[in-house]
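Extended Data, panel c. Modelled sequence:
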Amino acid sequence: MPLPPSLLWLLPAALVAPLLFPQHVCAQPAAADSRATPAEVAIEQDTVTTSDGWTIPLWCYNVPDDTSPQGIVILLHDLGGSHATVEPLAKALQAAKCIVVAPDLRGHGDSEPASMERRTPGDKNAFTSMKRGDFEMMAASRGGSVRDQSGIRGDVECVRNWIVSRQKQPQDRDHPLPRAPLFVVGSGLGAIVAAHWVSADAAWPDIASGAQGRQVAGLVMISPAIVAKGFPIAPALSRNGLPYDEKNSSKNMPVVFVAGAPDRDARTLFKQMKVSRKDAWHDSRDRDGSPCKPGEASLLFIDHPAEKSGDDLATTKSPDAKARLIDPMSLIPGFVQMAAGRARR
């Protein structure tokens, strides 16, 4: 059975883009493309250091030098995960011509604190003893009025700064990063961190040289929880957290919820956000009752039937080919392409 028209955007980006954004689609070359495929582009590994001394490793999944990327995606894993647990999604985005930067958040994977007394070398479970303040610092971005000189720089802010530095000094890099719309995708705890960092980004004031914040073209939250380890998501999703212009809804950053069968919190959070975006949402469970088409909505909810959550949902590969159309590894690249087209208008 074919997907209903309101869900066409869930198709892989290459199929859905001509239908929803025809003005952005160029004619396909007749000859075979001899450029390097994403699989042939080396995955770069680097580290950044936060203002409180954590060493955060990151992995950059680049695109060939002669490829114009659809977007740059900061990809954040769930509690207890690492870049490796979301790598299938990173590679799916890379294959769809997105540059992906995936860190190991503090207390996870190969991250290291300033003092090794806080963590045994090789311990992959340091997150179990972390407190709310540790999780807040993952998303922190504040201190002063000039962002490049900010006093408090958490995990995601340092990843963002790494991206910006690679864009500003391309002549010093073997694989510089081109400029492209920025997206943040988070899973589980990573969704909470993503929402808080996007909120912090939006709070930076403009200065004489231009805008310092509001740099995010889209936010995707997979299995977000209302609270994790005492760290609540609500302040980030409020009107003060994610500014919303009712008079010009088409200019608002689109927010996507992706929920598996167990993700009750995601459904609650979407319901709460609908109140402030009452004429600008789309729900895949109620396509006829949704006031917006997916390509026009600034708030979207995608209901996935899998009995999975967090990183497992983010990287799921449904056995049925039709069901795979709403797997995050198909859905999110399509969303990035459409939102990037919107951001470039």
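The chain has nine helices and 13 strands. This feature is highlighted in the accompanying rendering.
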